[in-house]
Design a protein that fits this description.
7-stranded parallel β-sheet, about 15% strand
Length: about 325
């Protein structure tokens, strides 16, 4: 008798986005049958998903249509989000909260009804209290510091609400939802212009456009601190968390903290250009933020290892090539 091997299936919500696109590719490499769902296709590379469905997960009927069987793993990365210019301006607060909450309410409840147990929710370091991140040199982002809750943005408030939603479904419906608190994920094939890009991509674009002797603009004094995690390391942590028995939120980030000025100088050095930094007013977010990896080391016996410069070299090279491509085509817009 011939043995029939049935592939495991995975659903990636937000597969047209940066992390979701990389995640779908990784799951395909592992042999999964993968369905991707998003409002849009990926902007920079073709999807490798076996099935890619365009649609709006805020629509309950659509969510029921695409979550049409008992997937082995569901990754809920779909959200209304962007960089500091989008999240911290205040102009998008209602949409950010309404859209992302609806997506999570629909996806999670349909998964429960389909008897899907394994759902991973992509939360964010933005859930941590603002008062613990006022000192750029000693921010406190340990997982147990999240309460009393006091995020600095409505994006963070929606994420913390949704964390509690997923954990409530674990308790009430015997699910195995996992919560990953991502810290500034970066890499190639991500948004690098248009207003929703994050700091590594925005700075890389500015440097790629600049000529020797020019200045690039940085919001604030540049002394605010962050850590940045390369996307491949994010995927590794995500899959390890999904397949673990960890029923509490866990940071997935780097502990290599830098100031925004240091990040800019690193990227300038990578470019080989002679550039200056010009500080201008702009939305900043918290003064300091860094991943605290003590819990993930303890629970998963793993943490990211790649130095910041390695991922930044790959990211700058890709963005510089994209800028050059658009300039050659005469289609570049900031």
């Amino acid at each position: 008798m011939t043995k029939v091997t049935v592939k495991k299936s995975a659903l990636v919500c937000g597969a047209g986005g940066f992390i979701g696109g990389h995640l779908a590719n990784r799951l395909k490499q592992e042999g999964f049958w993968v369905r991707g769902v998003d409002l849009k296709h990926g902007e920079f590379e073709n999807s490798t998903c076996d099935s890619f469905i365009l649609g709006d997960l805020r629509d309950r009927t659509f969510a029921e249509d695409v979550i049409d069987h008992k997937f082995d793993e569901v990754y809920q990365l779909a959200a209304d989000m962007g960089g500091a210019g989008y999240v911290f301006s205040g102009a998008n607060d209602a949409n950010v909260m309404h859209n992302s909450a609806l997506i999570n309410l629909n996806v999670l409840d349909v998964c429960k009804n389909r008897d899907i147990k394994s759902v991973l929710f992509s939360s964010s370091a933005c859930i941590y209290p603002e008062h613990n991140q006022l000192d750029p040199d000693t921010p406190n982002c340990a997982e147990d510091s999240a309460y009393p809750a006091s995020p600095d943005s409505e994006y963070g408030w929606e994420k913390i609400f949704s964390e509690r939603l997923y954990l409530a479904y674990n308790r009430n419906f015997d699910m195995n939802c996992r919560v990953a608190r991502y810290h500034n994920i970066f890499g190639p094939y991500g948004t690098w212009t248009g207003g929703k890009e994050k700091a590594p991509a925005a700075i890389s674009r500015k440097i790629a456009l600049a000529q020797d002797g020019d200045s690039i603009d940085i919001w604030g004094d540049g002394l605010q601190t962050r850590s940045f995690l390369y996307v491949d390391e994010c995927l590794e942590g995500t899959l390890r968390l999904m397949r673990s028995d960890i029923g509490e939120p866990v940071n997935i980030g780097s502990e290599e903290m830098v100031t925004i000025n240091e990040l800019a100088m690193l990227l300038i050095a990578i470019s080989g250009k002679d550039l200056k930094i010009n500080h201008i007013p702009g939305p900043l977010g918290v003064r300091g933020r860094n991943s605290d990896n003590r819990l993930i080391r303890k629970l998963l016996d793993w943490e990211p290892q790649e130095p910041l410069i390695t991922g930044m070299e790959r990211t700058y090279k890709w963005i510089a090539a994209e800028v050059a491509k658009q300039q050659t085509a005469g289609s570049f817009t900031v």
